[in-house]
Amino acid sequence: MSTVNPTDTHHHDDHHHGPVTLADGVWPWMKRWIGTTNHKDLGTLYLIFSFTMLFIGGLMSLVIRAELFAPGIQFVDPAFYNEMITLHALVMIFGGVMPAFVGLANWMVPMMIGCSDLALPRVNNWGFWILPFAFTMLLGTLFLSGGGPASGWTMYPPLVMQTGNALPLMVFALHLAGISSITGAINIVVTILNMRAPDMPLLKMPLFVWTWLITAYLLIAVMPVLAGAVTMILTDHFFGTTFFDAAGGGDPVLFQHIFWFFGHPEVYIMILPAFGIVSTIIPAFARKPLFGHDSMVYAVASIAFLSFIVWAHHMFTVGMPVSAELFFMFATMLIAVPTGVKVFNWVATMWRGSMTFETPMLFALGFVVLFTIGGFSGLMLALTPVDFQYHDSYFVVAHFHYVLVPGAIFSIIAAIYYWIPKWTGVMYNEKLGQFHFWWSAVWINVLFFPQHFLGLAGMPRRIPDYAVQFTDFNMVSSVGAFMFFIGQFVFIYNMIMCMRGSGTKATGRVWEGARGLEWTVASPAPYHTFETPPKIDPREMA
Amino acid sequence: MKKISMLSRWGLGALGALAMAPAHAEWTLNMGRGVTDLTDDVFGLHMLIFWICVVIGIGVFGAMLYSVIMHRKARGFEAAHFHESTVVEIAWTVVPFIILIAVAIPAAGTLLQIEDSSDPDMTIRVTGYQWLWEYDYVDEDVSFFSRIDRESDRARQLGSGIDPASVEHYLRNVDNPMVVPVDTRVRLLLTSGDVIHSWWVPELGGKKDAIPGYINDMWFKANETGTYRGQCAELCGRGHAFMPIVVKVVSQSEYDDWVAEQGGDAESEGELATGQPSSGEVSADEATSSEESPTAGNATEGRTEDGREDQPEEAEESIVGSGEEDEGSEPATGDEPSSEDTGSGDGSSGASGGGSSEVSEDELMSEGETVYANLCAACHQPDGSGMPSAGFPALKDGAITTGPVEAHVAQVLNGKGAMPPYRGSLSDREIAAVVTYERNSFGNSTGDVIQPSQVAEQR
């Protein structure tokens, strides 16, 4: 093996800041986690934070599904229901999925490109520690008189102007979450462009690194747009501006344009890293290189570009000129082409491979199938005349949950199963992992598939109560939601066991077919890796 | 594994419970065809793109499944080493592109037809409010409000104890449906008096947003008579789920009869051919509301600047005042003419304008109770206790309901924060009734009796 010296064999006398453990005392241990600038520590913090938020957001979705189990209002007031749908989305998007991907990037990007840490470690620490404050503030609005924000995560004015004291807190929470995302994104861009190991040209980078590089640019481009939009809401509310107020010469639809100019790239921010993860895992378990590595990169870049010119497909019903509707329809349909290329390439990677089906691979395959279903409904939604029927119905709810839950979240779960032996040095319990996959895969479809039918039958989204003809599928969906949620505790248990170090020891390579620099270091990965740039064996690269 | 089978049995048990679902429930899987030529086209496009997805899905998932079954290490399959092919990549870029063009062409054609609302046979102005609709027949001089029916409204309350399945057309029924003739090109002009709403009756076509400050248009031409139901499709606050839309498509002669009934002749007030009782307030409001929608929009914009406050009851007069200024600057808003006295056959919602006749306290109290149950109880609760935690103050011993009468009337007229203004949707008599009711119920005992003339003065 002409690869690297695993850095744990180095003994640098000038490095005394190895990880402090609980054995060194509670306060030093807390100080370590508060002050850490280590990419692995921060990756762990991001992931723990993200799963806390996924849990809270999940509880909110259970409130929603409990109320929707039967027609009539059984549990919560409609105003509180609206707070739940609003906070569920904000928490899941900005607190759950985005920080989870940043956490994975923290852990893996330096190890995949052969550098010792992110380029701006202190900014990295700051970027993380903003988040708990942001979400404490956001969730704290639930305890205000007047309640939390209840205008949906899209915050459309004029409705959002009816928010009570929660409005400024929601705006500031989004500002903070945005600052966090931007610092993370800048850090990742600078690291990838400047700190790659000498023998790693851009086009040889692993797909996960590529997708994150492009995602980071999307973040830098659109998070300020969101910040601007919510700031205008703030000034409309408190300082007498009328950006979005028709009575003052403003335009409520302007907000929607600005919001979705952020919002559409945002949905790719939540799915491009997932593409990277799946493109990493499938070749490892098919024991065959990724099919069309370069075309995958070009496809991701095309999707990222197209994401900037399709935003108004979220607002076909606001009454745009027909020429604009045609443009946004055609542009949206175009996205199906690069997305199709990616799916075809994954299947071609599997084709004539030598596949095994450990848990990460199962979740990656589940991703391919279920994300593709979400993609199909996306293609249907692209057709403007039909969208007039689908829009704001449960069909849309089914669509974006298919791409976000068995899409983005399955990929996050797959990534954690794939890399946790490298992080903790022990294998997770494979039986529990397999059970977790099958349980999740079944119930997620029980949960979301019937929502297609509900939408087609005419049930609008964001309603706490519905006409009785929608009862049956809502009951099925609610059962699915509770069962899916329960199953996730198996995953949490499995991961806690790994973090406590109980399980069979993992080898450095972990997976037979795994390729990439991260597998050339020991398991668990030493606290500092690649302090000197590795020499790369070409077989480790794409 | 024992635990697993137990859990899955529990899951099956829960699914089994679905068998006991209410009798109304349906397992509808697909979109309906609707009753216009365009909904038929849209249905065709929907099925076209659906089958394309199915075929592609079978291809992709089939290849994947074959590979998963055949190319597994457990069968001793050795991995091949190919990892790129420009020809294949180009093929699966170009072929989907061609398929997309084949779909885009008919989709664009249908879109152009949908968006061409020229040459309508009739026009109805639709204004969304939190949480009701106003229909204003521009050519017919007919205008009325349409809100959720009383039975659904009672059943939908938290802990109402009423089984929604026992309510006919639960949440999909209104007091005054829109009535249009069959085979007629009906154009809707949509706007809103407060926040964004969206008008959607699936059988008549897609939805269109009703946006304050905008006038959007859409059109439909129903091919079959019948009653078609839908509801608001854009989140518009607490009552979003409770602003249904009902459109009755009737024959031209039935429509003409209906218009005549709405024309203000109380003697001809009766039932529509379809049996839906028509409420007297239809004619009650027609005189003023035809010009009022854009005005109401402005007034509400002024109002919403203020936002939902901690204690909306402590109304600042300046805000109310500015709303009135906006309103007053529009020339079309005047007092309600007293001719609307003729409009009512239904005491509960019947209207009486600023006429000189006094209304008895008993009448005001009973009419007020009805209005209160319809509009106010959802937030302020049937017993007037409000929901302080959600920002809806108690009316029992409230600062407004036991304070000066003028401020109380002004608040009902102009709204405040999350409370919509009712100057457009309630008559003087209804406002007088509900204010009287609120001031002498829930333990409030001001003894005030407010006459419609007082409300008319404050308008």
From TrEMBL, chain A:
It catalyses: 4 Fe(II)-[cytochrome c] + O2 + 8 H(+)(in) = 4 Fe(III)-[cytochrome c] + 2 H2O + 4 H(+)(out). One of its GO terms (cellular component) is respiratory chain complex IV. The keyword rRNA processing does not apply. The chain crosses the membrane at residues 42-64, 84-105, 126-146, 166-195, 207-234, 267-285, 297-314, 326-348, 360-382, 394-420, 432-453, 473-496. The keyword Nuclease does not apply. Pathway: Energy metabolism; oxidative phosphorylation. It is an enzyme of class 7 (translocase). CDD domains: Cyt_c_Oxidase_I. InterPro entries: Cyt_c_oxase-like_su1_dom, Cyt_c_oxase-like_su1_sf, Cyt_C_Oxase_1, Cyt_c_Oxase_su1_BS, Cyt_c_oxase_su1_dom, Cyt_c_oxidase_su1_bac. Its main location: membrane. Belongs to the heme-copper respiratory oxidase family. NCBIfam families: CtaD_CoxA (TIGR02891). This is Cytochrome c oxidase subunit 1. The lineage of its organism: Bacteria, Pseudomonadati, Pseudomonadota, Gammaproteobacteria, Salinisphaerales.
Automatic annotation (TrEMBL), chain B:
Pfam families: COX2, COX2_TM, Cytochrome_CBB3. It catalyses: 4 Fe(II)-[cytochrome c] + O2 + 8 H(+)(in) = 4 Fe(III)-[cytochrome c] + 2 H2O + 4 H(+)(out). GO terms for biological process: ATP synthesis coupled electron transport. Its EC number is 7.1.1.9. The chain crosses the membrane at residues 49-69, 90-112. Keywords: Copper, Electron transport, Heme, Iron, Membrane, Metal-binding, Respiratory chain, Signal, Translocase, Transmembrane, Transmembrane helix, Transport. Residues 119-261 form the Cytochrome oxidase subunit II copper A binding domain. Binds a copper A center. Residues 258-367 are annotated as: Disordered. The keyword rRNA processing does not apply. Residues 344-356 have a biased composition (Gly residues). One of its GO terms (cellular component) is plasma membrane. Its main location: membrane. It is an enzyme of class 7 (translocase). GO terms for molecular function: copper ion binding; cytochrome-c oxidase activity; heme binding; oxidoreductase activity. Residues 258-270, 311-329 have a biased composition (Acidic residues). Residues 275-298 have a biased composition (Polar residues). Subunits I and II form the functional core of the enzyme complex. Electrons originating in cytochrome c are transferred via heme a and Cu(A) to the binuclear center formed by heme a3 and Cu(B). PANTHER family: CYTOCHROME C OXIDASE SUBUNIT 2 (PTHR22888:SF9), CYTOCHROME C OXIDASE, SUBUNIT II (PTHR22888). This is Cytochrome c oxidase subunit 2. The lineage of its organism: Bacteria, Pseudomonadati, Pseudomonadota, Gammaproteobacteria, Salinisphaerales.
